[in-house]
């Protein structure tokens, strides 16, 4: 158990509304990631972070922003949600002594109507 | 850009059968190849990690192999059980700590 929680676990929202998903970890790891999972596409990296206020874009970053003001929290924001952002979102962390692997949170199922 | 493909997308086998899941990748400059398990509605659980210098890794009834030159990895599951039913995902790690995932193989083991 890598001590990763995600909130909310489920959310239904309407097109055009802002949405923020939270990833919280209890182990003080530097590396954190946000992925989305869609049928037929596996998991795709949205954004990642190497530390507080240190973030970078992944493969599918358009329409998403992130923030990391504390080591334990990594926030993913959809500024104006669209139906194409309906997906399951996973947060992951890499432990400091083994950055080659990642441990995943339970996921957030987001539906944009 | 790395691309990872898993075939088949779904597989159904009777209990007790040995089976092989396939994973192929286009960029051989990987640091490692990882296999994950995902149960319905759950996150991913790491099963095996093969470093680029290794040929295989074993954990219990699971054995994963890696052939970088051909861009392939296989996950062998021996004596399959109904509890093995899940989606299995492979992922290649490239420079920048970037994990690229395949689409997964959904396995059903029937009693």
Entry keywords:
heterodimer; A: 113 residues; mainly beta; seven-stranded mixed sheet; four-stranded antiparallel sheet; B: 111 residues; six-stranded mixed sheet; five-stranded antiparallel sheet; globular
Runs of chain B with pLDDT <50, length 5+? none
Task: Give the overall silhouette of chain B.
Answer: globular
- Total number of helical segments of chain B? 0
N-end to C-end Cα span of chain A: 34 Å
Largest sheet of chain A: 7 strands, mixed
Q: Would you identify the regions of chain A where 5 or more consecutive residues have pLDDT less than 50?
A: none
Main sheet characteristics of chain B? 6 strands, mixed
Number of strands of chain B: 11
Calculate Rg of chain B over CA atoms.
13 Å
Oligomer: heterodimer
Q: Care to count the β-strands of chain A?
A: 11
Strand content of chain B: over 45%
- The H/E string of chain B reads EEEEEEEEEEE
Distance between the terminal alpha carbons of chain B, to the nearest Å?
A: 41 Å
Radius of gyration of chain A: 13 Å
Largest interface: A-B, 22 and 23 residues
**Cα shape of chain A:** globular
Proportion of residues in helical segments of chain A: under 10%
Query: What share of residues of chain B is helical?
Result: under 10%
Class of secondary structure makeup of chain B: mainly beta
Mean pLDDT of chain A equals 92
